[in-house]
Each structure stands twice: as structure tokens, then as C-alpha cells.
């Protein structure tokens, strides 16, 4: 029996969408009195909406292509700018309404004043700034690499490792790159840190192992005296596209593991290595992806098998939800955990003492250093990008951590 399509939710969304755009148009009408404004506006909005629906249908069949990227990003920019414009417009309208109510108590008559042209102009300036900001994020921001340095102090750090440095990147998502020259700039910044150790905390690709092939020559340049180590992220398993057979999916993962080796990365799959210096050691462990809602594959017990409670341990685990669920209270103390995954949602603000991104409503700790129970977690904001082909306010990150003895 064919399932009956429920059109009610679609109708409700369409009504809200129409009402929202009508409100935006009313504000634009206060700026321009042209008789062509309304038809041009509705033709553009309607055409863009239908183009998005078509692009989504094509994407489900063919995957993400250039047409989908152009249409989806145009829609996102326009919609975000409209929201900003409508927000400031609404503030002005609420103020006008409150003033009308206040005056009505004194005069006995109720009259709402016309919109203040200066306020509408300000709202339009914010509309234009939003478009400019998104344009920057798409063209420049996604490659605007930042080096973030942290010094962490430990009571139980072996003396020989006092001053030991490591560089971390995460979430390369090589399939999203379109500018090899810009990527090379990031690689040069990584090598310029001259850290003792390099680690990569997962999501080398979006879906297919082949995505990293054009960039093997870039990432294989990364070298560190104590080696280069990596783990897998949720996207590396190929779970988000349809494979002809399960064997093809397994073969893809095996190829990806082989590419880690070509990059010069030692892939840690629920295992650990010992890093030795002057007769002392620290443990570097790495697990397969473990994340709430994104596959709980990793086995922490296996990764730390044959290690001691007194060993100083660093853990590579892609998803920060693993730290809250298992790591921070693990019986054998894990001194430092390194994660990624969140990307800081590639959008937010970290300035003037403000640290905010929509991703905070999904992850308690989504970027930077956190300490609890005498243990540290660092969440890297990601080297690459996914979905939204840009970054605004949350820039691509190269983390440098120095270990110091207390």
C-alpha cells in the first residue's frame, strides 16, 4: 500500500517562509520605492528556492557537485542576510509599537509612527555586511589558518619531557579542498612550528579514500622528530554514502589506511606506542572513532592494554563526547586527550571575551582546552571544512601544545 504524503508540514513551512520574506520586502520597500522591487524580489526568491529543491534532488543521486554548492551557498548567504535584516527591522518595529502604546495612554488615541528611515538604513547596512562576511568566509576564511599555542602543566610529567611540544590538526576533509596553494600554506605553517611530535585526530576525507590522493604530496611533507601519528574519524569509514557492495566499502577503508602510511602517519587503531627520551617514556594511544551518535567503535581498554596507572598518557580520540563518556573518569589516568570533530561549526565568534558557536548546543566543550579531574582535553577547530564551504569567526586551526613539569 502506497504511503499517503502528508502535505500539512510543507504547507506550514511555505506559509512561514512566504510571511518572512514578505516582512523583509516591506523593509526593503522603505529603502527603495521602485515598482520593480517587488516582482524582482519574488522572482529571485522563488527561483532560488526551486533551484535549491532541484539541487538537493540531484545531490541525492549524484552526490555533492558544483551546482549544489553554488545554489546551496547562495541560498544560505541570502537567508542569513535576510534574518539579520529582519532582526534589526523587528527591533525598530517593536520600539515603534511600544512608543505608540505609551502615547495612547496619554492622548487616548492609538497611532503607530512610520518606520525611521535611519534605522531601516542601518538594518540594510547589516544586511550588506552579512553578505560580505559570508563572501569572505567562503573565499578566504576557510583557508585563514591560525596557530593556537597552549602551555599545559603536569605534576606527573617525566622530567625528560619538560618542554616537549606537539602539533595537532584535525578534520582535514580533503574532498572539500579546491585550492592546493592555500593548503600548502597551512602545511608550511605546521612545519614552521618545529614541534617534537605531530598528531592528526581524524576525518582525513569526507567519504572516499581517493579524496586525499591529490594532497598526499602536501601532507607527506609534515615531519616531526618523534614521528607523525593519526586516528580515524567518523567520516573516514564511508558511512555517509551508498556503496555498490559492503566489500567496496571495506576496500575503501583499507585504501584509506594505506594512504595514512603513504602520508608518513602511523595510524593508531585501538593501540599505543611508547615515546622514549633520556630513559623515560610517555604513552601515546589512539582509538578508532568513538562518538555519541557517530559510532562507538573504539576500545579504550584495548588501546591502553599493558600500560601502567603511573604512565603519563596522551590519547588521540576524534570525538570530544568520548572524553565526557569514558576518558575523564577512566581508572588509569589519561593526562591529555586530543580531539576534533566539531569544526566549531565553522561559524561563531571568539572575540572580546565572547566564545560562541551554535555547536555549543550539541557539545558541552567544542573548542580549545578544558580541564577536569586533573586531566586535560583539547578540541581542535579543524584544518578543513565540510558542508558549508567556508568559515566565519571560527578559523581553521593548527594547535601547538607545550608540556611542562609543575
TrEMBL record:
Any one Gene Ontology BP term: lipid A biosynthetic process
InterPro entries: Calcineurin-like_PHP, Metallo-depent_PP-like, Metallophosphoesterase_sf
Annotated Pfam families: Metallophos
Organism from which the protein derives: Pedobacter suwonensis
Alphabetical UniProt keywords: Hydrolase, Membrane, Metal-binding, Transmembrane, Transmembrane helix
Protein name as it appears in the record: Calcineurin-like phosphoesterase domain-containing protein
One GO molecular-function entry: metal ion binding
Domain Calcineurin-like phosphoesterase: residue ranges: 165-344
Keyword Metal-binding on entry: yes
Protein origin, superkingdom: Bacteria
Cellular component GO terms, alphabetical: membrane
TM region(s), chain numbering: 7-30, 36-56, 76-98, 118-139
